[in-house]
Amino acid sequence: MDLLEYQGKQLFARHGLKVSSGKAVTTVDDAVAAAGEVGYPVVVKAQVLIGGRGKAGGVKLAADESEVHEHASNILGMDIRGHIVRTLWIEHASDIASEYYASVLLDRQVLQPLVMFSVEGGVDIEEVAERTPEKLIRHHVDALAGLSREEAVEIATEGGADADVIGGVADALVALYEVWLAEDATLAEINPLIVTPEREVRALDSKVSLDYNALYRHPDNQGLSDSENEDPIERRAKEEGVQYVKLDGDIGILGNGAGLVMSTLDVVAQAGGSPANFLDAGGGSDAEKIKQAVDLLLANDAVKAVLFNIFGGITRCDEVARGLIAAFEAIKPSVPFVVRLDGTNDVEGRRLLQEAALPNVHAAKTMNEAAEMVVALAAGQPVGAGA
Ligand code: GDP
Ligand code: MN
To answer: I need a surface site. Which of 14, 90, 100, 370 has the fewest CB within 10 A?
Structure first.
């Protein structure tokens, strides 16, 4: 779960990282009012979940009211590589002596936290890593011990931070590590980490991603998801506690269990199809749960056919079939369904479906057969006998 810059900065401040004061607003009038409160000069900053806002014209300095008005008008509604700006962050402008870079993430190959630091900040850090890798310090941290201040001082020194701000940079690194650890972030990045002419070290930007699966441990962070920019169906699924992912194709996929859903995606792709979304119905088989799942899948207009793939274990196929029948009677889906029932009580499940004679529902016995059927149906081709 990616945070907007100003939300990341709120987490930074919570852990003692220095940030500039500012206000988030959504209208030009509020931007002007916020600038008055924050104090001129200010920076008007587009809040979107994508970097490179400065280059795209989404970060502008303003010396007075008329400039804030002008920049806020221009930036609100701006499309930054597919992200429409709906929120602005109005921040008191900083004077900048140097722009550094700092980040913390998990190095999955080494299975250790990785702290990175460079005095070549402000720019695209991938470029620094490629052209002058010696200028990007990579330091692995003992996860049990955490990042000590001594280690942080070494990182800052090795990276070539100005001698008089090594302490300030070390403090920032320790605080950033704490943000990453305590907030269950997958990434905590500052670019640029600035040094002011007064030699203060401060985070001028933030990029924080939180581990969605750990969000239940952080009630304070639960309101942070950028719901306006989120896919509305994904948001609904989250609220309903359903695992749902939107993709780009035209076949809806529903299965029980993450492993089965993943292999269903593969089989559909092999059959030449392209999934529009997938949904893990989990262990539930009652009509209400299945109805909810079907509702969610069909909320995506791109879906032309649905593959419902159930492997019965503890979940019995006859129960699933009953749930499906009840759900279909309530929803009356307008697109064809292929239902594959296999495992516990599958014969009974298929018999129930056949008896119910639901329009546009086709039963399949194997996954491959089901995939071929659903790909044909999505392409508007007829398939063999219905259920
Ligand atoms: P990004 O382009 O999305 O990474 O947005 P940033 O927040 O990093 O801002 C881009 C650039 O704008 C920074 O690298 C700075 O050079 C400049 N900038 C941002 N805030 C200020 C500020 O308060 N004062 C000054 N002088 N420049 C700023
Ligand atoms: Mn930046």
So the answer is: 14
Task: Give this prediction's pTM.
Answer: 0.71
Alpha-carbon distance 252 to 275, whole Å? Answer: 6
Helix (H, G, I), strand (E, B) or coil at 5: helix
Structure tokens at 167: 């302490």
Q: What is the pLDDT of residues 159-194, one digit of tens each?
A: 999 999 999 999 999 999 999 999 999 999 999 999
Residue 248 has pLDDT above 60, yes or no: yes
Q: What is the pLDDT of residue 40?
A: 98
Distance CA(10)–CA(150), nearest Å, equals: 26
Q: In this structure, which ligand is nearest to the CA of 59?
A: 1
The whole-number average pLDDT for the span 193-215 is 96
For residue 135, the tally of other CB atoms under 10 A from its CB is 15
- Which helix (H) or strand (E) segment holds residue 196: the answer is none
- The pLDDT tens digits of the residues spanning 18-74 come to 999 999 999 999 999 999 999 999 999 999 998 899 999 999 999 999 999 999 999
Q: Within the chain, where are the H helices? A: 5-14, 28-38, 65-75, 125-131, 149-159, 166-182, 232-240, 258-270, 287-298, 317-331, 346-356, 367-378
* CA distances to 114, 140, 173 from 109, in Å: 11, 11, 22
Q: Which of 2, 12, 200, 205 to mutate to test ligand 1, by most ligand atoms within 8 A of the CB atom?
A: 205
What is the 384 CA–ligand 2 centroid distance (Å)?
56
Q: Which ligand is nearest to the CA of 51?
A: 1
Catalytic residue among 91, 183, 189, 372: 189
Count of beta carbons in the 10 Å neighbourhood of residue 154 = 15
CA of 43 to the centre of ligand 1 (A): 8
- CB atoms under 10 Å from CB of 386, counted, come to 16
Query: Ligand 2 mean position to 69 CA, how many Å?
Result: 23
Question: Is 6 in the active site?
Answer: no
pLDDT of residue 386: 47
Residue-wise pLDDT for 275-297, tens only, equals 999 998 776 666 778 888 888 88
